[in-house]
Amino acid sequence: MKPLVIASRLRQQGLTLLELLGAVAILSLLMAGLGGLIGSALELQSEGQTKNTLAHEAHFAMTRMTESVQNSRHLLLPLVDNPDTSWSEHIRVETVPASPPEGSSTLATAVLAVTLSPRQDLDGDGWADANNDKDFLDLNNNGLRDPGEAELIDEDLDADHTRDGAPGIIGIDDDGDGSVDASSASNQAWDNDEQGGNPGSSSDDDGDGQIGEDSFEPVVYYLSGDQLIERWPSFSDQNGDSLVDGRDYTESVIAEGVTLLRIERVPLGGSRAQLVDITLTLTQDADNSISLQRRVRLGGGL
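Predicted structure:
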């Protein structure tokens, strides 16, 4: 009986201290390796989410800009080159941090501006939002808008093409010289005649005996710090002056972390439709950046 009692006691003792310490050491090594794998997986997941967020934001902002160009009849900015200046108006480039300006300009700014789509009718009244005076091509001369009679939009422009009381587009550096709403004998940022010069006197385009009935409603994209701003015209009083004109607009941020915005009015000859090159770069950090480039035809979606 004594040998059986001894064996039973040995079985009850379990692992020795040395065996237990060995098991703990092995388990610690396994856990450390597993923790490293989990940490690497989480880091890769975070990097993937950052890249996906950047890509989504960049594609969204690029889509907003390209669709605005495709659904517009007029490219307001960039302007064509002015031979009297020492910088290129047809290319607008802005970086964050800021890059040196070109020629005698004082600040490099990028901006894209087009007119509102002639198809947009947000209030659903049957008239395009851009048709300020709600007129049309009266082919039947009956004073009624019959089927097939197109609206007249952005005609009979006033000397102030955008009705905002400012040279060019209010709050925007139109000619790329670094100054906003500037106008002098040596610095003329006239209202969006697509040539950079004085548009001259208005005319009665539709033969109704009136001038200054319609105006451009600019859709504008520009940088404020590293934020890409989208500006849309508003058809209600936004600035509290009891008027509705070019000084009324709404703005929203459509991208952050912008490190490059480049807009180019592609030089063309003849009667070819205007092309616009757009380059946009968003940067999160040294390892996460995305750059998109698109060439889009003005009015290509109309």
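Summary: Residues 184-201 have pLDDT under 50 and may be disordered.
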